[in-house]
Amino acid sequence: MSVLIDTSVWIDYFRHGNDALVTLxxxxxxxxxxxxxxxIACGTPPAPRLKTLRNLGFLExxxxxxxxxxxTFIEHEKLYGLGCGLVDMTLLASTLITPDTELxxxxxxxxxxxxxxxxxxx
Length: 122
Fold this sequence. Notes:
Layout: E1 2-5, H1 7-16, H2 19-26, E2 30-32, H3 34-42, H4 49-57, E3 60-61, H5 67-77, H6 86-96, E4 101-104, H7 108-116
Protein name: Ribonuclease VapC32
EC number: 3.1.-.-
Enzyme class: hydrolase
């Protein structure tokens, strides 16, 4: 089982560490999405900044839902007005189209949606 790691988990890891995340990385089960890397790039990842961003890019990428797929997903499942934005919905849709993948997030609203679709990591 692979796990798409949300930005919230990475930020918590950068601040406090997380043995469970390290284990997923060591076992090659941790997946990344380009939007997560970009969200982290908008903030202040650990120094050296460029090395941190480059290292994230070495992780395996999940399948990436297109904007059309995300829009259709939002409309079909009536996911509007729930407090989740573009990146959240894109990560959820991408998780759903990546076989045997769960989504790990610390964001309560996104976690609730991941549970609703049966893809929440623990």
